[in-house]
């Protein structure tokens, strides 16, 4: 409704304005925020005979995939290029630049250690590099980052259980919980109930990807068996009215990543028909996120623009979604209120209502 009375913003004006609106991003994979430059450098280090052009060809080869499982293979191929935990210093630098570029003031990021542990790296060393870099980002930019360890569903229950045990032996204040990512078709949520229960009993928060590649039954299992506090994607919920009601009733937020969902094509084929509109209208706490910036060539601000220009959200609705990003996060209530207040203050410069 408000859309008709709002002045329509062009892309540049929109992006400049939304860059200044404080936002949280709560569904972002650390290993996917690595920049193309860093990947190219890692490829050339591994293959000293390659020039930049040859390295670019290699990136093109790695990035040829057409479904979620193909994407996961590419994801693992990029992780394979890391030589030591010190490589995370470069990845966190890329993360810092990404957060600054997109006006993100708080981030909860997934870090997936499985592939690195399989290389024989010491988890405590990985954690100390994470911690050092999170502190560095906050010191340099004031942006707070917290980590959710993706225990991973791709390699089975025992691997997830092992990852949790490693985490429990290496607790730090910057790691606040666990997530469940990876192949939803190969690792059904119901297998991981005891891992989630144990994590919560030790004070960790729990979230899980669900309804990205599998139907609403995966989301039901995730809220009933895993009892996850938030759902990553949750797109297949659109076809189950009872499930939508339940997500509203239990106030379980969705971490929606529109471009990623259009890529996966399982439940969304075009941006215009993305069910985030339905979720929002039905009262679910929806948030916008980029998921895997490097792989999908999309950043958080692009997703706000897509929601505005393609899906048809008004600026006022996008303000609510920006506020939701803090509401749905795991920061304390006082901090949430402070951030939401900051959104309001930044909103005063809204170019669509400015005279
Ligand atoms: Zn994800």
From TrEMBL:
<dbReference type="GO" id="GO:0019239">
    <property type="term" value="F:deaminase activity"/>
</dbReference>
<dbReference type="GO" id="GO:0016814">
    <property type="term" value="F:hydrolase activity, acting on carbon-nitrogen (but not peptide) bonds, in cyclic amidines"/>
</dbReference>
<dbReference type="InterPro" id="IPR001365">
    <property type="entry name" value="A_deaminase_dom"/>
</dbReference>
<dbReference type="GO" id="GO:0046872">
    <property type="term" value="F:metal ion binding"/>
</dbReference>
<feature type="domain" description="Adenosine deaminase">
    <location>
        <begin position="22"/>
        <end position="345"/>
    </location>
</feature>
<dbReference type="Pfam" id="PF00962">
    <property type="entry name" value="A_deaminase"/>
</dbReference>
<protein>
    <submittedName>
        <fullName>Adenosine deaminase</fullName>
        <ecNumber>3.5.4.4</ecNumber>
    </submittedName>
</protein>
<dbReference type="InterPro" id="IPR032466">
    <property type="entry name" value="Metal_Hydrolase"/>
</dbReference>
<keyword id="KW-0479">Metal-binding</keyword>
<keyword id="KW-0862">Zinc</keyword>
<dbReference type="InterPro" id="IPR006330">
    <property type="entry name" value="Ado/ade_deaminase"/>
</dbReference>
<keyword id="KW-0378">Hydrolase</keyword>
<comment type="similarity">
    <text>Belongs to the metallo-dependent hydrolases superfamily. Adenosine and AMP deaminases family.</text>
</comment>
């Amino acid at each position: 409704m408000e859309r008709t009375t709002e002045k329509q913003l062009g892309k540049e004006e929109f992006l400049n304005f939304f860059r200044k609106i404080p936002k949280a991003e709560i569904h972002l994979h650390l290993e996917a925020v690595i920049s193309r430059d860093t990947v190219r450098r890692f490829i050339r280090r591994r293959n000293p005979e390659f020039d930049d052009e040859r390295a670019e060809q290699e990136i093109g080869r790695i990035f040829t995939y057409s479904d979620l499982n193909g994407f996961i293979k590419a994801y693992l191929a990029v992780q394979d290029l890391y030589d030591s935990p010190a490589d995370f210093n470069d990845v966190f630098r890329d993360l810092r630049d990404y957060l600054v570029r997109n006006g993100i003031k708080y981030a909860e990021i997934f870090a997936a250690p499985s592939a690195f542990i399989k290389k024989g790296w010491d988890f405590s060393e990985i954690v100390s590099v994470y911690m050092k870099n999170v502190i560095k980002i906050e010191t340099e930019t004031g942006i707070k980052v917290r980590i959710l360890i993706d225990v991973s569903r791709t390699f089975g229950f025992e691997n997830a259980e092992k990852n949790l045990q490693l985490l429990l032996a290496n607790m730090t204040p910057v790691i606040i919980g666990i997530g469940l990512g990876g192949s939803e078709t190969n690792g059904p949520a119901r297998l991981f109930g005891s891992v989630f229960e144990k994590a919560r009993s030790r004070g960790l928060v729990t979230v899980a990807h669900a309804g990205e590649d599998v139907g609403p039954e995966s989301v039901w299992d995730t809220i009933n068996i895993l009892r996850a506090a938030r759902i990553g994607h949750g797109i297949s919920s659109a076809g189950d009215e009872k499930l939508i009601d339940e997500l509203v009733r239990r106030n379980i937020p969705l971490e929606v990543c529109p471009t990623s969902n259009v890529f996966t094509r399982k439940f969304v084929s075009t941006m215009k028909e993305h069910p985030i509109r339905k979720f929002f209208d039905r009262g679910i706490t929806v948030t916008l996120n980029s998921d895997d910036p490097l792989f999908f060539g999309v950043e958080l601000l692009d997703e706000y623009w897509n929601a505005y220009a393609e899906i048809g959200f008004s600026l006022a609705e996008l303000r609510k979604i920006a506020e939701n990003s803090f509401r749905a996060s795991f920061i304390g209530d006082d901090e949430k209120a402070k951030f939401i207040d900051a959104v309001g203050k930044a909103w005063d410069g809204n170019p669509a209502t400015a005279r």
